[in-house]
Amino acid sequence: GPSGAGKSTLVALAGGDLLPAAGTVRVVGTASTAGTQDAVRAASAVVAQTTWLFTGTIADNLRLADPDADDARLWRALEAANLDDEVRRMPDGLRTRLGEQGLGLSGGQAQRVSLARAFLADRPLLILDEPTSQVDLDSEAQIVEAIDRLAQGRTVLTVSHRAGALTTADRVVRVADGGVDPVSPESPASSESPVGPESPASSDGAGGPDSASAGSGPDSALAGSGPGSAPAGSGPDPAPAGSGPDPVTEKEV
């Protein structure tokens, strides 16, 4: 959807960082209210456009999601994120030291560390905000494969302007004027053009354990967890909750 359509607002609502101004938003069966906001946040893990990695080892960065995770769990998370082989080839493996913002890794590798961290968090809702916007096509393919693995047993909500990121989505919608419009069942990823403001659009993963798509904005590695994590929907184009014509009175995520 175009800038200002409400993609970032949708992500913030789904992650519990924004309460609805009207109507009801249900996240994994829980109505999002001031009294349930912490529970709604705890139901989701957010992987944002800008990866939040810190000075320290790969293991240190992964354990932001679960400080008690042993090495075996870290390797399983890296495998799910399609990154284990590359880390095993590094001389220090899990003890490989990174600079601020993942210095020492490629953009695709850094994004997959964020995906591995989300896997460790093991939340029922995974929110991906432009997960492939800063990587090349080869890295995008690896990230999409990782997302498909992470989608097993959970709902995935993906925001993307790139058609390739939506190839495994079960449902795709365009966000416009504060509302959502379905895109034809054939995936927009079959098109060679990006899913931008003028083409069939963003995605919405409302409901179901399988992967789906919608929304947009920069990154927080995990919603409400780890030092320095950024709030979901902190990127550009926020739109006020409940804005636009014919507001939906209840939304299940």
UniProtKB/TrEMBL annotation:
<dbReference type="GO" id="GO:0005524">
    <property type="term" value="F:ATP binding"/>
</dbReference>
<keyword id="KW-0547">Nucleotide-binding</keyword>
<protein>
    <submittedName>
        <fullName>ABC transporter, ATP-binding protein</fullName>
    </submittedName>
</protein>
<feature type="region of interest" description="Disordered">
    <location>
        <begin position="178"/>
        <end position="253"/>
    </location>
</feature>
<dbReference type="InterPro" id="IPR039421">
    <property type="entry name" value="Type_1_exporter"/>
</dbReference>
<dbReference type="GO" id="GO:0016887">
    <property type="term" value="F:ATP hydrolysis activity"/>
</dbReference>
<feature type="domain" description="ABC transporter">
    <location>
        <begin position="1"/>
        <end position="202"/>
    </location>
</feature>
<dbReference type="GO" id="GO:0042626">
    <property type="term" value="F:ATPase-coupled transmembrane transporter activity"/>
</dbReference>
<dbReference type="InterPro" id="IPR027417">
    <property type="entry name" value="P-loop_NTPase"/>
</dbReference>
<dbReference type="Pfam" id="PF00005">
    <property type="entry name" value="ABC_tran"/>
</dbReference>
<dbReference type="InterPro" id="IPR003593">
    <property type="entry name" value="AAA+_ATPase"/>
</dbReference>
<dbReference type="InterPro" id="IPR017871">
    <property type="entry name" value="ABC_transporter-like_CS"/>
</dbReference>
<dbReference type="InterPro" id="IPR003439">
    <property type="entry name" value="ABC_transporter-like_ATP-bd"/>
</dbReference>
<keyword id="KW-0067">ATP-binding</keyword>
<feature type="compositionally biased region" description="Low complexity">
    <location>
        <begin position="178"/>
        <end position="247"/>
    </location>
</feature>
